[in-house]
Amino acid sequence: MKLHTLTLCGLFAAAVSAQDAVPGVAMLEASLTPVQKIVAAGESARLTLRVKVVGDAEIDATLLQGMNLQVAVGDAKPASFGKGGSGKVAVAEGTVIERVLEVPIEAGSVPVGEMVPVVVEWPGLTGASTSLQVVPEQTGIDLAKLDMAKTKVMLITNYGTMTLSFLPDKAPGHVENFVKLSKQGFYDGTRFHRIIRGFMIQGGCPNTKEGATGTPGTGDPGYKIDAEFNDIRHVRGIVSMARSNDPNSAGCQFFVCHGTASSLNGSYTAFGKVDEGLEVLDKIANVAVTGSPSGELSVPREPVHLHRAVVLPAMKGDD
């Protein structure tokens, strides 16, 4: 897999000068941190640049007044954007400067079906380097053209990534619904809110998003889908749809079996399985939990984030 590099240039060319500076001693300590470690092509990566002045110095005024960035992905020609500044500004030892940078990621810069690691760095500024993951742009995916038996979805969590494949011959409506919601970003920013080791991990509720006011586990996409019960056994790694007592009440919440759950066979709609990342399933299933309002020991003590659900499309007719 090719490693792409975004280079932030120009701001710190001859950035520091100081009277009586000791040769070889850096006058700045810097860090570059992504606000989100995963972004989609066509979006902007937001980065926090933090610079601490460790000795009386003069820095480029651009650091305070604006910036002029050059961005290149892979072998592409660098693109410039932003405002420039000029001159020097005297700053005292101990000064800390933070800037949030918006770095656009070109749509189409990531091959379909891949997640590309990107290194972001500021040449000449020690410590100003970081990495993030860029996933394919999703909005242009045409569901009608997808081969659902070959299409996959990556669930990117704070415990790692699980890649799911699907069973459209068993539950075509559920597969299409899950891929559609993933494509729309519906699952992005949700959490796995119910975890029972040896049984399953459950997520997909919009009420688990930051700022949501509803009770976790009660949210839906605004509609229900009909059951597609089938002969797939609920065993480790199988993905199935959560529902209430009404067989036709599934909408968006799903669960991944951590162990065998024979009591669910034929009464919950299994529609996919974990192709890669069973070790991630184990990590999530083993997080510490506390009691729910009903007394069930299933509420994670620390958040289990589903950062993104990324569709890896396979088109009909593709080999």
Describe this structure in words.
By secondary structure, the chain is mainly beta. Helix content is 8%, strand content 35%. It has helices at 62-65, 172-184, 278-285, and strands spanning 4-7, 28-34, 38-40, 44-53, 57-60, 69-71, 79-81, 88-91, 96-104, 116-121, 129-135, 152-157, 160-166, 190-191, 194-196, 200-203, 238-241, 254-257, 270-276, 289-291, 297-300, 305-312. Strand 15 and strand 16 (200-203) form a beta hairpin. It is globular, with a radius of gyration of 24 Å.
Strand order of the biggest β-sheet: 14-22-12-13-19-17-18-16-15
Unreliable residue stretches = 9-25, 65-71, 79-84
Order of helices and strands: EEEEEHEEEEEEEEHEEEEEEHEEE
Largest sheet: 9 strands, antiparallel
Number of helices: 3
Content of β-strand: 35-45%
Number of strands: 22
Distance between the termini: 21 Å
Percentage of residues assigned to helices = under 10%
Which structural class best describes the helix and strand composition?
A: mainly beta
Which of globular, elongated, flat, extended, rod-shaped describes the shape? globular
Integer-rounded radius of gyration: 24 Å
Mean pLDDT: 82
Task: Provide the fold topology.
Elements: E1 4-7, E2 28-34, E3 38-40, E4 44-53, E5 57-60, H1 62-65, E6 69-71, E7 79-81, E8 88-91, E9 96-104, E10 116-121, E11 129-135, E12 152-157, E13 160-166, H2 172-184, E14 190-191, E15 194-196, E16 200-203, E17 238-241, E18 254-257, E19 270-276, H3 278-285, E20 289-291, E21 297-300, E22 305-312
Parallel strand pairs: 1-10, 3-11
Antiparallel strand pairs: 2-4, 4-9, 5-8, 6-7, 10-11, 12-13, 12-22, 13-19, 14-22, 15-16, 16-18, 17-18, 17-19, 20-21
